[in-house]
Design a protein that fits this description.
Layout lengths: L19 H19 L2 H12 L3 H17 L1 H11 L1 H19 L5 H11 L1 H12 L6 H12 L4 H16 L1 H22 L4 H9 L6 H5 L5 H32 L3 H29 L1 H19 L4 E7 L2 E7 L3 H29 L4 H30 L4 H31 L22 H8 L3 E2 L7 H30 L2 H7 L9 H22 L2 H5 L1 H10 L2 H10 L7 H10 L1 H15 L4 H29 L13 E2 L5 E2 L3 H4 L2 H14 L2 E2 L6 H4 L6 H31 L11 H12 L1 H7 L1 H24 L3 H37 L5 H23 L2 H16 L3 H23 L6 H4 L7 H8 L4
Parallel strand pairs: 3-6
Antiparallel strand pairs: 1-2, 4-5
């Protein structure tokens, strides 16, 4: 039935009806107490079992009876609520359940306890009453939030788990039943006195209309859509309850935890996941229940797929014989996956019930009762099925495989049902009157606009109107939004650089831990992240216009969890094959690719007058991730940061105990925080788009390739020396604990990049770049001299000078690109107007900035690899350093001949004899990235 056909209820309201907020909070408190009573057997059942000497089967039946009956009565209670009114019905259910709970305390035999358990189960049926009563006070746009708050009463189960054991130990299980019964009875009376009947019931009595018959209400259950909602709730609520009951046994059986620890982890899983239901209701009101369910089912399917994969041993028949390794999910990733699963399940609970008052405003009781009943049955049936599957398969993870099947069916059924409805709506156009009033269906009512464009603009976080060059808009609106996006982006980029370069420190520890890799193999591990990161940059540069900066930043940041977790597991076992380390090193390249997309995204937020500073902050502070990692990792590996959850310490060849896995695990909470901050705090700009064809012209520009060569000399050196220096210092100066100093190089390079852009603006990027390369040649000569006299201080000082110069050169080379393209555009396209030349020059300059950053990042591969090849061939790094010196000579000559010498194209511009073109100046202001 369409909501538009319902003339009564809340459809015409914009604010809650009188007494609505009181009814909501009183109902939530009442349901919390009901849920505490409903799950009382999970605690007092243990006392009953000891008193009567019950078997496991008898105990299981006793504990499960209230759950079963509380689920089965929900349809009937929902129907009666529509007829008698939710206020009366909820108070009556609470009093009846309180009486049954009180009688339970006097039960002496097993049969009497089972009979009382039937009455206690009525407390669970209160849910069906509340979901029919509460939403009638609220307009459609607030019903999801209201139902989410009411549903958070699930936390009553945790109340019982925390408080009932204390009471039972002090006074016995009978006292628990008596106290819980008394609290429930008092709550029933208070609820009835402070609340009022819902607006629909009041209107029906005032007009003398009879209540809808039970048959008319139950007729809605013939609709297949109702059973589809029931399947959704079977997963989001039934599976959630089942996992809360099953987790202690799983944690004890799989990870060997004690009962106390397993129970506490299960309780911590239940409490926050119940409270997040409120947030799920809010999201359903704001973005649409269907959108929330898509996220719920999608993320749940991903988590369950990982959880269902059993521990497995692999044997690869390699060239030199079999290569064996194992895969298994440790405790930390298991807890992360299960808590993420519980979070999205809680969002889904609220989203399912957001649908019901929208689709069935006159049958909320019957439909909500059926959906709640099926969900409750899931909490009763699934733990039994989990046990049966363990017996049949002998695989602990079979329970998650079953849930993966259920959520996949739910997702596919929902998707195809939605597509069928949308197709029908689009065929009929605006003539449709029965289409449900859900936010995500609004685009269907706008046939004049392309569907893709409307869906894009309807997404959360999209800025349809963005005018940073408008001074008033920027002052009142734009600056705050842009800065928020900048700081979140910078934090995510810092993490990306940290994960990208983490192997530079990890490889230096591997020989101490018993890994028998050769020097060349170790340098390969330090070099491969640079190779993959540079390659990823080429693709990442084009992702923001396609997916949006918000989504891509969240996804690319979350992808860092893969190498972070992988490193944490791999380093704990010296038998881990070298192949696994190679794969993890390549996956660390995810962090390197983030630079291109991050810089491309942030540039769109700021006006040209402030873009340079914004990009310098984003890049410079992001580069600090390398220094932070090289400073933090040597510290965190010396103690157990995560306790028992982080795994055991490894003993080094000199007898020390270190936790090398912390090099990966330490970033996990920050990565999760960064991904969530990007998703909930960043924005997309609807107008920020540029086709690949528009940018592909740079591949025909000679200066694009020349600047790639120069930027490889500056940024390529910065990232390459960052990756290779820790291992090089350990090998060349083994008597020095260089790990406590290596972070200083990347720190100086990052700060010099962020703080010296003004030098290039004043003296010209080409002139500064020339002197940078001259200084880098001197620094390499200093390194060679230091090696010849075996002086670590001299060597380290030369390295710090080199890092400082690379930071200055990073800014100066990028500053050159804007003026170069302004001059080249004027030469190649003289027929264009000055404004058209400016637009074309800016577009190509931005593309060259992205492409050169991708090419230069290959320095993170070539420099460590050159060190390894040099040491392997000659016994020392000198050959590699002579090669770097020759390369810097070519860079200096190229800068002089092409740009700043007598025939250089920037000579006149930089000496202020010819004023720089307007586009050159604008680009220079926005380029030090």
């Amino acid at each position: 039935m369409s909501p538009k056909e319902a003339a009564e209820g809340t459809l015409g309201m914009e604010t809650p009806a009188e007494g609505g907020r009181t009814a909501l909070w009183a109902s939530t408190l009442a349901f919390t107490i009901c849920f505490a009573v409903w799950t009382i057997f999970s605690i007092i059942g243990l006392g009953m079992k000891d008193q009567l000497g019950l078997s496991e089967t008898q105990f299981g039946l006793l504990v499960g009876t209230p759950i079963l009956t509380g689920s089965l009565v929900r349809v009937a209670l929902g129907v009666w609520t529509e007829q008698l009114g939710g206020r009366r019905m909820l108070a009556l259910v609470m009093l009846t359940a309180a009486l049954a709970t009180l009688l339970l305390s006097w039960a002496d035999s097993y049969s009497e306890m089972l009979l009382a358990a039937l009455g206690v189960g009525l407390a669970g049926g209160a849910f069906a009453v509340g979901v029919a009563y509460v939403p009638k006070f609220f307009p459609p746009g607030q019903q999801g939030t209201a139902l989410g708050i009411f549903g958070a009463g699930n936390v009553g189960a945790a109340v019982t788990k925390f408080l009932a054991p204390v009471v039972m130990v002090a006074w016995g299980w009978q006292s628990v039943a008596q106290i819980w019964a008394g609290v429930l009875a008092v709550a029933a009376v208070v609820f009835y006195l402070v609340t009022r009947d819902d607006p629909e019931t009041l209107a029906r009595r005032r007009e003398g209309r009879p209540a809808q018959s039970a048959g008319a209400q139950l007729a809605a259950l013939k609709n297949i859509q109702v059973w589809r909602f029931a399947l959704y709730y079977f997963f989001v609520f039934g599976a959630f309850v089942a996992l809360a009951l099953w987790l202690p046994r799983y944690l004890i059986g799989v990870y060997g935890l004690d009962v106390k620890t397993a129970g506490m982890l299960a309780a911590f899983y239940s409490v926050p996941a119940s409270l997040f239901r409120i947030y799920g209701g809010r999201l359903s009101d704001k973005y649409g229940a269907r959108a929330v369910l898509y996220w719920t089912f999608g993320v749940s399917a991903l988590c369950l797929f990982m959880l269902s994969y059993p521990p497995t041993d692999y044997t690869i028949h390699g060239v030199r014989g079999p290569i064996s390794f194992s895969t298994s999910m440790g405790l930390i990733p298991f807890l992360v996956a299960i808590f993420v699963l519980g979070f999205f399940m809680s969002l889904g609970k609220a989203a399912v019930f957001k649908h019901i008052p929208v689709y069935y405003p006159k049958q909320i009781g019957a439909v909500g009762g059926l959906v709640g009943m099926v969900g409750g049955l899931g909490g009763f049936i699934l733990p039994l099925v989990f046990g049966v599957m363990n017996d049949l398969t002998g695989i602990w993870t079979s329970c998650f495989a079953l849930l993966f099947l259920i959520v996949t069916v739910s997702l596919l059924w929902m998707h195809f049902a939605v597509r069928q409805m949308e197709a029908a709506a689009l065929r009929e156009g605006r003539a449709i009157t029965g289409l449900p009033e859900l936010p995500e269906m609004e685009p269907i009512h706008e046939p004049a606009k392309p569907m893709l464009e409307r869906l894009r603009k309807a997404r959360a976080g999209v800025l349809a109107d963005w005018r940073p060059e408008d001074a008033e808009f920027w002052r009142t609106t734009g600056r705050a939004v842009a800065r928020r996006n900048l700081w979140i982006s910078t934090f995510c980029l810092l993490l990306a650089f940290a994960v990208w370069m983490v192997w530079s420190v990890v490889v230096a520890q591997l020989p101490r831990l018993g890994f028998t890799f050769t020097t060349d193999q170790l340098f390969w591990l330090a070099a491969l992240p640079g190779l993959s990161g540079a390659t990823f940059r080429i693709f990442y540069a084009f992702m923001v216009p396609v997916f949006g900066g918000r989504l891509w930043t969240a996804v690319s940041t979350a992808s860092l969890l893969i190498p972070a977790f992988g490193i944490g597991y791999a380093v704990q076992d010296p038998n881990t094959p070298y192949l696994i380390f190679l794969v993890l090193a390549l996956l660390c390249g995810f962090g390197g690719g983030n630079f291109a997309s991050s810089m491309a995204n942030i540039g769109f937020f700021f006006p040209k007058a402030e873009r340079g500073n914004a990009l310098a902050l984003n890049a410079g502070l992001g580069n600090l991730g390398v220094s932070l990692m090289q400073f933090l990792v040597p510290i965190v590996v010396t103690f157990s940061v995560f306790g028992a959850l982080g795994g055991q310490a490894q003993v080094t060849d000199d007898g020390a105990r270190i936790w090398a896995q912390n090099a990966g695990f330490i970033w996990v909470p920050f990565i999760m925080l960064g991904a969530l901050a990007a998703w909930f705090g960043m924005n997309d700009i609807a107008s920020a788009k540029a086709s690949f064809a528009d940018q592909a012209a740079i591949f025909r520009r000679t200066h694009n390739w020349l600047m790639c060569w120069l930027y490889t000399g500056t940024f390529g050196s910065f990232i390459g020396f960052s990756a290779g220096f820790p291992l090089l210092a350990r090998l060349v100066f083994p008597e020095v604990n260089a790990m406590q100093y290596v972070f200083l190089g990347p720190l100086i390079g990052a700060l010099s990049r962020a703080g010296t852009g003004w030098v290039s603006d004043r003296w010209g990027g080409a002139r500064v770049t020339l002197w940078v390369f001259v200084g880098m040649i001197a620094a390499v000569l200093g390194m060679l001299w230091a090696l010849s006299i075996a002086s670590f201080p001299a060597f380290f000082g030369s390295v710090l000078a080199l890092f400082f110069l690379t930071g200055v050169g990073n800014a100066s080379t990028f500053q050159m690109i804007g003026p170069i393209m302004a001059l080249e555009t004027a030469r190649l396209a003289p027929a264009l107007s000055p404004a058209e030349q400016r637009v074309r020059a800016d577009r190509e300059a931005a593309a060259i900035v992205g492409f050169t950053s991708a090419v230069a990042a290959f320095g993170a591969f070539f420099i460590p690899k050159a060190y390894g090849a040099s040491i392997d061939a000659t016994g020392g790094p000198e050959a590699a350093l002579w090669g770097f010196l020759a390369f810097y000579v070519t860079c200096a000559v190229l800068t002089w001949v092409a740009y700043t010498g007598p025939r250089g194209i920037l000579r006149e511009v930089e000496r202020r004899r010819v004023p720089p073109p307007p586009s050159s100046q604008a680009q220079a202001e926005g380029s030090p990235s």
